[in-house]
Structures are given as structure tokens and as C-alpha cells.
Specification:
With about 290 residues, the chain is mainly α. The chain is about 50% helix and about 5% strand. The chain has a three-stranded antiparallel sheet with strand order 1-3-2, covered by helices on one side. The protein starts with 19 loop residues before the first helix and ends in a 34-residue tail after the last helix.
Length: about 290
């Protein structure tokens, strides 16, 4: 389910901690490095990024740091951001960043999630069943799968798009099979940009909340080892993929079942897992495990 960000006073950011800005410099530089690399690779220049940051600083100060019962002024936004008051006045009112998923991305995710979770569309091991295009009665089919999520889009249209995007294949029995590509947007698939923003936003938001408050609110942990051989690193990466997919499938099945009984509302939940492996030496503290990223 998608939702708009909350605006309750309890959700407002806490007051800055002493020396927090100085402590933030090193982790922020490390966090931004791969994003700067992505910007350069994608053709986004520094002036364009600087303008985006200026707009975001004003937007966040305007919407997230307003004092309850008081009008947010250009002068206060300027004080919070360090941006000149005239520039603040020009940039204010641009609107909050968009949080909604594109319709096509939302539909694809919902149908795949149901295929992976609903017992009528999975086998005894919880794997997605190959589905005929149509079937008589209550027998599972691709048409029934799509119809269980939406009545506004024809199953044939969904199938044609998914075949084109290589999310499914047709086997020798003329059944539709879900393939691994369905889990990872690739190539020119625009949904990968949506997931880049959503998943990184939620991970960074969880980590930022944990370092801002008196006690960690969200689970945000990692197992990490340095000084490995490339062979062992690749083996651990492959094994962690298997463990991660099992965890994601289990969470999806339980969430899908619970959703059927839920009254609905404006809350949002995201459970994500990341794996990273590289062949460069970092500051090594020996073999370590169980730390927060």
C-alpha cells in the first residue's frame, strides 16, 4: 500500500544533537560517494545536483521543521538551511517530493507479490506455480491471478507486457512461469529508478532515525567480514542471496495473508535486505560480525 507522509507533531525531527554536524561529515561523505559516482555516470552535473539539494533543503525545512501552531517563515527556513532568504522565498511552495509509486510499477509488484504468497498460486514449498492462461472453475490461472489484484486491467495486457520485459516465460505446456528477472528490474525498465529512490530512502531514513533518537527504533543491522579471499566472498554472497530470498518470501506470505483481514489506512511498511561485496581493501579491524551499517 502507498501512503502520504505523516504530519503529526510526534513525527517531527528531534532537536540537533551537540556536534552532530561534525560527526556527520565522514559517514555522509562515504554515503554520498556511490551516489556521486551514479550522478557522473548518468550525466547529472554538480550544478544540477546542487540545485536539487537547494530545493530539497528548503522543502524539508518548510514541511518537516515547522513549529506547531506557528507559520513557517522565509526567515526561519533561511536560518535552518543557511540559504539566502530571497532564494528561500523563490523556492518555497514547490511541493513535497512524490512518494507514490507509478501505476505500472505498483500493479506489477502487487501481482507478483500475490503470485509468491497466495497458497492457490504456490506449491508445497512456497514456490510460484506455472499457471495456465485460463482455467475452468476455481482452478488457478494467470487470468485469475491478475483479476484477484485488479479488475481494471486485462490479464492479456499484463501478460504481453511481462513477456516483453522477460518477467515470465511460456513453457512447453503453454503455462506461464515467473522468472527471476521479475524480482530485479533491469535494462531500460523505468521501475528500477523508482526502487532506487524508495529503497535507499527507507534504509537511510531508518538509519537516520536510529542515530537521531535516544534508542534505535528500527532494525538495521549487517554481518560483515574483511580480509576475505575473492572466492570465499563470492561464496558468502551466493549463500546470503539464498537466505535473503527465503526471508523476503516468508515476510511477503505473512504480509499478504494479514492484508486480507486488514481494515486499511495510511501506514506504510517496507522490509528490505541488501548484500554488498567488493574486491578492495578497507580499514580492517580483523574479522568482525554483527554490526550496524
Amino acid at each position: 500500500m502507498n501512503s502520504k507522509p505523516g504530519s503529526k507533531a510526534a513525527d517531527k525531527p528531534a532537536a540537533p544533537q551537540p556536534n552532530a554536524a561534525a560527526k556527520l561529515h565522514a559517514p555522509l561523505a562515504r554515503l554520498l560517494r556511490p551516489l556521486v559516482r551514479l550522478c557522473i555516470r548518468s550525466g547529472m552535473t554538480f550544478p544540477a545536483l546542487a540545485q536539487l539539494l537547494r530545493e530539497l533543503f528548503v522543502n524539508v525545512a518548510e514541511h518537516d521543521f515547522a513549529l506547531e501552531g506557528k507559520e513557517q517563515t522565509d526567515s526561519r527556513v533561511s536560518l535552518l538551511t543557511g540559504i539566502h532568504r530571497k532564494e528561500v522565498s523563490r523556492l518555497r511552495g514547490a511541493g513535497a517530493p512524490v512518494h507514490e509509486a507509478p501505476a505500472a510499477v505498483s500493479l506489477t509488484s502487487a501481482v507478483i507479490a500475490r503470485w509468491l504468497a497466495a497458497p492457490e498460486f504456490t506449491d508445497a514449498k512456497g514456490e510460484p506455480l506455472p499457471l495456465p492462461r485460463t482455467a475452468a472453475g476455481e482452478a488457478p490461472s494467470f487470468e485469475q491471478l491478475v483479476a484477484s489484484v485488479t479488475k481494471d486491467v486485462r490479464p492479456r495486457a499484463v501478460l504481453d507486457e511481462w513477456l516483453d520485459r522477460e518477467l515470465v516465460t511460456i513453457n512447453g505446456d503453454d503455462e506461464i512461469e515467473l522468472v527471476e528477472a521479475a524480482f530485479v528490474p533491469r535494462g531500460e525498465d523505468d521501475s528500477k529508478w523508482h526502487y532506487l529512490g524508495r529503497n535507499l530512502h527507507d534504509h537511510i531514513a531508518a538509519a537516520a532515525e536510529n542515530v537521531s533518537g535516544p534508542a534505535p527504533r528500527f532494525l538495521e543491522r549487517a554481518v560483515h567480514y574483511n580480509g576475505l579471499s575473492p572466492k570465499l566472498a563470492k561464496r558468502l554472497e551466493a549463500r546470503s542471496r539464498e537466505l535473503a530470498m527465503e526471508a523476503l518470501k516468508t515476510a511477503n506470505r505473512e504480509a499478504n495473508r494479514a492484508l486480507a483481514k486488514d481494515k486499511g489506512g495510511d501506514a506504510r511498511w517496507n522490509f528490505g535486505i541488501y548484500i554488498y561485496c567488493e574486491d578492495v581493501e578497507e580499514e580492517s579491524d580483523g574479522s568482525g560480525e554483527g554490526g550496524r551499517s
